[in-house]
Amino acid sequence: MTDSITNILLVGVGGQGILLASEILAEAFMIAGFDVKKSEIHGMSQRGGSVVSHVRFGKKVFSPVVPEGEGDILFGFELLETCRYLNLLRSGAKVVANDFRIQPPSVLLGQERYPDNLQGAISSRFPDFQLVDGLKIATELGNPRVANTVLLGAVSKYLQLDDSIWQKALQKMVPAKALEVNLKAFVSGRSL
Q: In the prediction, which pLDDT does 48 show?
């Protein structure tokens, strides 16, 4: 991970904490001394629409957007959104996804059906797939809103940064009143 560029994609639905997670990731890599570029697409995110964040780091990064077929890690907050962006990954990429489903409007209106066996579809293409019940773990910690930090902890295992760097990034990016539960959530995800 020193001279090459590492490409991370965070995908999900508005309101899941994707943008905060991408800010924490970018901050951690900057603390570690990498050049970092970040970009997001969050069209109707306030109304439950798709959100995608690109985080790229390395010795020198020129573009914030992960080229199609070059993603190293896909960090999915919702299963259908995770499947939607698999085409951006390279062969052998890592996929960490939240075991969570949000019914899109077309499903809620009865026009379509939420697909079955999304986990199987993901693991058949990416055998190094990790499914995390981020909401359950966050709820057990007393705050379902920290599911994003549980997932960040799970993803952090694939990134070679010291715990102290992650703690500094969390301290800088998370409001003080929510820091303690976010640190616990991160450790819970990292220990999976």
A: 67
d(CA 80, CA 102): 8
CA distance linking residue 192 with residue 177, whole number of Å: 25
CB count, 10 Å around CB of 125? 15
Taking the CB of residue 3, how many other CB atoms lie within 10 A of it? 7
- The DSSP H or E segment spanning 93 is strand 89-98
171 vs 169: CA distance, rounded Å:
5
Any idea which residue has 């990498």 for tokens? 34
What confidence score (pLDDT) does residue 14 get? 85
CA–CA gap between residue 140 and residue 55 (Å, rounded) = 29
Residue 38 CA, chain-centre distance (Å), reads: 13
CB 26 within 8 A of CB 38: yes
- At position 112, the amino acid (one-letter code) is E
Distance, CA of 141 to chain centre: 19
pTM (two decimals): 0.91
For residue 79, what is the enclosing H or E element? Answer: helix 79-84
